[in-house]
Amino acid sequence: MPRTARLSRDDWAAAALAALAEGGAAAVAVEPVAARLGASKSSFYWLFENRAALLDAALELWEREQTDEVVARHAGIPHPLERMRILLRNALSDNRADLALRLTGETHPAVLEVAGRVTRRRLEIVAAAFRELGMEEEQARHRATAAYASYLGTFALARVDAAPADIDAYVDTVLACYAP
């Protein structure tokens, strides 16, 4: 982004989110994020009080883009199994989605809070789909946990170049394991 462009809070948050994805919470620092944007540190302080506010903005952006907006885009898919298939396929095809894996391993309190909230929400969304398929509450929660663990595990495998090559076949296999 050219230096002359006026940067918004979301611009800074997106750059901080990229830093978070690459190096964890410790990588979200004013100078490196400013450098990533081609901006000055002083421009940061027009928008944010401190580094913690930047980290919070990055986490809010991740939650909004990777959970709220994703759920909203797929809410109109009437059949729960098809909804889960499309959600999982899209999530596994999105290179930014593996941030969920990084965030679940963070120890920073702000990251833990948001990662926990997002994880609980995602688990509830999957469990609700399993309940729509006729499962009892406890079984739906257990299967949602197993399916989400498969999702996170796939990104862990991708880090060592062992992820499945055929995402569609993999998604079908995962859902066959957990859906009735």
Automatic annotation (TrEMBL):
Gene Ontology molecular function, alphabetical: DNA binding
Under Pfam families, the record lists: TetR_N (PF00440)
Keywords (A to Z) from UniProt: DNA-binding, Transcription, Transcription regulation
The feature table lists the DNA-binding region at 29-48
Q: Where is the HTH tetR-type domain?
A: 6-66
Give the protein's recorded name: TetR family transcriptional regulator
